[in-house]
Amino acid sequence: MGAVGLLCKGFLTGLSKVETHGMEGFLKLLDEREDPANRERGLITVSNHISVMDDPILWGILPLSYMFNPDNLRWGLGSYDLCFTNKGLSTFFTFGQVLPTHRSAHSQFGGLFQPTITQAIRLLSRGPFYEQDAPVKPTTSLKSPDLIDPFTNGHLTFSTNGHDTFPAPSAYLSRRHAWVHIFPEGMIHQSEDRIMRYFKWGVSRLILESDPMPDIVPIFIEGFDNIMHETRTFPRFIPRPFKNVRVTFGEKLDAEEVFGDLRARWKQMRATEERKEGQLEVGVLNEKLKYSPEAVSIRKECTRRMRQAVLDVRRQRGYPEDDPKNSLAETWLREGPGREGRKEDGSITKDT
């Protein structure tokens, strides 16, 4: 991660004009979290998604001293069909603390109940999650992430589809109360007025089910779409230099005030189900907790509030109020069956 961080920092500082807002408070939060043994809760950062290179280039704004402590760097969600298609890519992105995530539009294994979301919830939580305490540091080799090590506990690995095998990062105590970054739009959305698409509900699972309640920081990014705009010509794989980028960190949310009532409702639902069926493992749900109207209602409202928190940071940058209809999935059905490309309103979307 340090090598990639150096490349991203070199690009931003040497070939771009970077403007940050609120980063001092965010760095203070990272400093408080430096020692995993002293952390009391996880960290979720949430931002809009405007280019294929938002992550990792975004984190090039961090000082160099932060880039060589992977225990205090973000975990992200990466598209399985793009980032984990062969052993080389799997190894690279596994070392880069990216979790293999199936997209529903491309895989039957996608959705907010896939095993990767369970891993993300556990990374944010206290742990350990099994009868025997997990090792402090990983001991499995990441050079062959699709091979099961027969000499280790099966809980040190997980499968996304019943056939593959990946190291389970949440099995290690050094990763408890980790930092997870998420782009809840689920795809790139490039528009001149920086409108955001609706947020998908996976972010609500991280907020509702992580224990204890994580710290949550909303982020709004600008200019990365100019570095990797979807209309770019050959060579498309090269980031465009000499662009202006801005990263605005919102203040850490008062998570109890914003989400406390929803978490209380969720815990009550979960307790009721556990009295019926026995204790459920962290990040594991039965059918009612997945699909009941009450569970759906809680996730929907949690996601709406999270999107509003990012919109509040967007407003700080001088953008006008967002149309409330933009928060609804139904609004974006007007795009039609074609998921990618330029839309009627001039915006551009791209699956990532």
What does this structure look like?
This protein has 352 residues and is an alpha/beta fold. The chain has one domain (1-232, 255-352). Helix content is 33%, strand content 15%. The protein contains eleven helices and twelve strands. It has helices at residues 2-15, 23-32, 54-57, 80-83, 87-95, 115-124, 202-209, 224-227, 255-277, 287-291, 293-316, and strands at 17-21, 43-47, 74-79, 98-101, 157-158, 166-167, 179-182, 187-190, 215-222, 244-249, 341-342, 348-351. The strands form three sheets. Strands 1-10-9-2-7-3-4 form a seven-stranded mixed β-sheet, with helices on both faces. A three-stranded antiparallel β-sheet has the order 8-12-11, with no helix packed on it. A two-stranded antiparallel ribbon has the order 5-6. A hairpin with a 5-residue loop joins strand 11 and strand 12. It is globular, with a radius of gyration of 20 Å. The two termini are 20 Å apart. The model is unreliable at 140-144 and 146-153 (pLDDT under 50). It is a peripheral membrane protein.
